[in-house]
Amino acid sequence: MTGRAAYVELTVEAGDEATEALTNFLWELGAVGVVEEASVGAPARLRAFFPAAAGPPALASRVDTYLEGLRALGLAAGPGATVSPVADADWAAAWREQFRPVPVGRTLLVAPPWETPLASDRVVLAIEPGRAFGTGHHGTTAGCLELLESLVAAECPARAIDLGTGSGILAIAAARLGVAEVLACDTDPDAVTAAGDNAARNGVAGRVRVVVADAASLDAEPAPLVLANLLAVGHRALASRYRDLVGGGGALVLGGLLDGEADDVADALAAHGFRHEAACSLEGWTSLALRHAPLHAPA
């Protein structure tokens, strides 16, 4: 086995709406690390690392078949997967190279656990990059964090809800910035586990409760702050649900919007009593802050 690569890197492209499904499929195939590289005006590029023993030809064939299925559903997907040996035979080094500490907004610093500073003048969020989305390196997550930071500083909400929490980064940031009670939910049990582990890693497990639940049926009292880093189609589907979950006068932070989608989503939410307040555009992605301003005061 001397001289043979111990790991291989599989590279594949997909449109925004297919990326999450494809990423989950790569994990199910046995990936030990998956990195998403996004650029404006181009499909997302996924880099997945596998043990060489997994069989490169079989991996590529299974991914190509999955891509055909995505295209049959009308989703944008690349022409096929490419597989190559990891040159230095060290996938962990190649994967970790993608995750460095990154400052966000005025006060936050998102860092992987292996590179968390011992001292910093910023609020450090130690987030393990793994199966759940959300490391602060993507424009949509960073935009949500910036809007969240401003809202918490100005209003000090006592409670928050994080819908589709992924890695838990937004819920954890809310707690670290001073929100006393955060309810986070995700339909993916792996994401819930990751979010719970990250909450404990950041010392806020007592204030962040993570549950397996769908945003459409989450049993929760209205909160003064609701966070949802989802895709545009999800925001439109949940528009009436947001009205139920955000208390009157409360704030709603939405992520996962391409720049060209933001105005349409803001208009759709306006029909449900939400007023546009602020926006943050980073790397072609827009995050929105909306205010729940119902037409009629509660009885």
Number of beta strands = 14
How many DSSP H or I helices? 9
What characterizes the major β-sheet?
Answer: 7 strands, mixed
Shape: globular
Assembly status: single chain
N-to-C terminal Cα separation, in Å? 74 Å
- Biggest sheet: strands side by side, in what order? 10-9-8-11-12-14-13
The Cα radius of gyration reads: 20 Å
Low-confidence stretches: none
Q: Could you name the key traits of this structure?
A:
7-stranded mixed beta sheet; about 30% helix; alpha/beta; 4-stranded antiparallel beta sheet; about 300 residues
What does this structure look like?
The chain has helices at residues 16-28, 56-72, 91-96, 139-155, 169-176, 189-201, 232-237, 239-245, 262-270, and strands at residues 7-14, 33-37, 44-51, 82-85, 102-104, 108-111, 123-126, 159-163, 181-186, 208-212, 223-229, 246-258, 274-282, 285-292. By secondary structure, it is of the alpha/beta class. Strands 10-9-8-11-12-14-13 form a seven-stranded mixed beta sheet, with helices on both faces. The protein has a four-stranded antiparallel beta sheet with strand order 2-3-1-4. The chain has a three-stranded mixed beta sheet with strand order 5-6-7. A hairpin with a 6-residue loop joins strand 2 (33-37) and strand 3 (44-51). Helix 1 (16-28) packs antiparallel against helix 2 and helix 4 runs parallel beside helix 5 (169-176). The longest helix has 17 residues, at 56-72. The radius of gyration is 20 Å and the shape is globular.
